[in-house]
Design goal:
Strand 5, helix 2 and strand 6 form a beta-alpha-beta unit. By secondary structure, the protein is an alpha/beta fold. 44% of the residues lie in helices and 12% in strands. The chain has 2 domains: 2-182, 3-Layer(aba) Sandwich (Rossmann fold), CATH 3.40.50.880; 199-313, Arc Repressor Mutant, subunit A (Orthogonal Bundle). The protein has helices spanning 14-24, 82-88, 103-109, 125-131, 156-170, 172-182, 209-216, 225-232, 236-247, 251-269, 274-281, 286-297, 301-312, and strands spanning 2-7, 31-36, 43-44, 50-51, 65-68, 96-100, 117-118, 136-137, 143-145, 149-152. Helix 5 (156-170) runs antiparallel to helix 6 (172-182) and helix 11 (274-281) crosses helix 12 (286-297).
Length: 313
Amino acid sequence: MHRVVVLALDGFYPFELGIPQRVFGSADGRYEVLTCTVDGRPVRSDSDFTLSVEQGAEVLRTADTVVVPPCSMSLISAELPAAVADALAQIRPGTRLVSICTGAFVLAAAGLLDGRPATTHWALADTFRRMFPRVALDPKVLFVDDGDVLTSAGAASGVDVCLHLIREDHGSEVANSVARRCVVPPWRDGGQAQYIEQPVPEPSATGTAATREWALARLDQPLSLADLAGHARMSVRTFARRFQEETGTSPGRWLIGQRLHRARRLLESTDLSVDRIAGEVGFATAASLRHHLQASIGVSPAAYRRTFLAGAR
């Protein structure tokens, strides 16, 4: 059984600390989730209670995946407390590491993110860059999967990254089942924009939501920017601006993302040929699907399908 160990640090955030147990613990016994502190003693939360655990840092030696949830920024510095550094040093090489929100600061302070892509909460991006200039920070995404190290942004993106790992480990059927039990969306792409603080457009009949729904029902058809703007009864320029305001991305990138999302689900759940899937989701050719999938996640459709078939067994 895959063992997930959650490291609870002083000043931990209760909601994020509970995410791994809630998500991995809903996967029908495929994961064992344990919580530890650096010394096995109780730690205080950032709220009005403390947490007692049964394990100290020695359990980190047995972990297949280690999750570092966030803790209060007042307790984080570029140099880790000796007890935390000693705890992290017990993690075996090759263990999968996951951070949620400010947990990325802990991994970075331990030197585990040097030279690697990572993310954290968008509001702390400038602070992170000043403290850890060797990390390739992208504060606009929900999570970054860099193989054996995954970092996620604030709060709900911790759910996203855990579901992503279940999907990688066991396929979409298991991940979707877990999502239903947790009553959360089954999938949000790691490259999706964080909900960065920005002016919110006033709700009106001239928004783009209805057009997005319209487009999702027609992904198998060629859809130009002019087609989308025409459905929304806007000029192309106005539609592009409103779309960016409402979604954080351009209409073209959004369409490609939605087509890839649907293609991935078909690769996971059907035996349709790549050519057939390309047509079903609106790519002109199988070569176009291969190109966009390779650019998005770094694998071919055939390799992606093999991965999920292996994970489902």
